[in-house]
């Protein structure tokens, strides 16, 4: 990641002189300020050594000496260095005078999600920080009077991170708060932004409906693993069809973003998700699905949902719903020791896909996962395989993501499942819950419980995964260009992947932190440890940082 960017909105000085002496000329005060702004202040700020992220200071007061005998350039340099030192000291001590005057966002998605949750819930105490960071700008709709339009204006400037920010924000403020802020038109605008089409999500099933059993199985799997689906179930909202279609887009962005980028690879999937959300929402007011329908086997179907989805009273929405509490999937076990015995291959498996007669070949249904609090991810999770993420650089050469989307044997599995299964085939010693294996699939630990409890791969699925892993290993070996790996491509994968580090994986953001001592010139020459940035098919920004 690049160094910190420090922006000072206003710099002012007040002269306090000896009452018994005549005041100095005001030019002696303005001169150092103007000279500092012209260069020395920027130089001092660039030299700051701040922890990563966005640091917002509402106000910083400090006392500086004014030596009338010193030249203006020298005073400007001293003042600039004093301002920079005060900023760094304030950040590292974590206090800035008044409560709330210092705000830290670890990355862009966290910043945007905080604005989404705050504006939707009517919390204005951080308006200054959202304006300071450019999330809210002059000319936007007034956030106090029109929070929904103000939010959409902010999200439209960050289309790649919009879905992740809304998903995280909904967990903080509840779905009903967003529904009040946006209404039907707002949800449709958001869906158009997330899909990149500029058009609202379709409300009617596409041609060729109904989809095949594999697509129905996939829809059930995605709904079972979706945190947004759980919030919808708990909210008691009764949305219109356009809103359901928009929510289906967000569920897809959350659980299988590659299918959102290539809807033709999964025809009818968004329509199925909208159907499932209709059944999950609205409690007992929704009609029962017909006998034999795949909708009858959705996890948490009907009023009340899971036991963890209990809805607090109050905060009623415009259509009679109530705000849902935030919820998360249960986290997996902590990272294991290196090289344990390999467990059976498995991953995020599908559920039933339509009438029972057509679903005999589908894997066993996945169990719904009750929400549990997630650990604070700020420090990341330790792994001995941090370099596994470097394989994202050679994923296109292995045909990803299209290869997995177009593989008939994997039609009932989401792409995260295929990536996770490929990670385990590439590194036989890795365990399913290793943070590197989950991050390669675009999954945060608190979103991985459904995948980790899914049925094991069928023989046909495992054959497809093994072929994908073999090609991925060959692509990695070819990128390294080392003759030692010409006949041992999996050896190249182990040489790249076996690196200690810490991985922070959250919705929309994945970061691997490695030691500077482990920097490898061979990886750099091959371009493997360059920041991938935004990967739409993974639904996340991916960054590498050496410390």
Short description:
This protein is an alpha+beta fold and 547 residues long. 41% of the residues lie in helices and 6% in strands. The protein has a five-stranded mixed β-sheet with strand order 3-4-5-7-6. A two-stranded antiparallel ribbon has the order 1-2.
What topology does this entry show?
Blueprint: H1 27-37, H2 40-46, E1 54-57, H3 72-93, E2 102-105, H4 108-121, H5 127-132, H6 147-156, H7 159-173, H8 175-195, H9 213-224, H10 227-235, H11 241-255, H12 257-261, H13 269-280, E3 381-383, H14 402-406, H15 415-426, H16 435-440, H17 449-452, H18 459-480, H19 489-497, E4 501-506, E5 509-514, H20 521-526, E6 533-535, E7 540-546
Parallel strand pairs: 5-7
Antiparallel strand pairs: 1-2, 3-4, 4-5, 6-7
Radius of gyration: 26 Å
Which percent bin holds the helix content? 40-55%
End-to-end separation in angstroms reads 11 Å
| Overall average pLDDT | 81
- Number of separate helices: 20
Overall morphology: flat
Kindly state the number of beta strands: 7
Task: Give the DSSP E fraction (strand runs of 2 or more residues).
Answer: 5-15%
Major sheet size, sense and barrel closure = 5 strands, mixed
Structural classification: alpha+beta
Q: Which series of helices and strands comes N to C? A: HHEHEHHHHHHHHHHEHHHHHHEEHEE
Describe the strand arrangement of the main beta sheet, using strand numbers.
3-4-5-7-6
Instruction: Detail the poorly predicted runs.
Output: 302-377
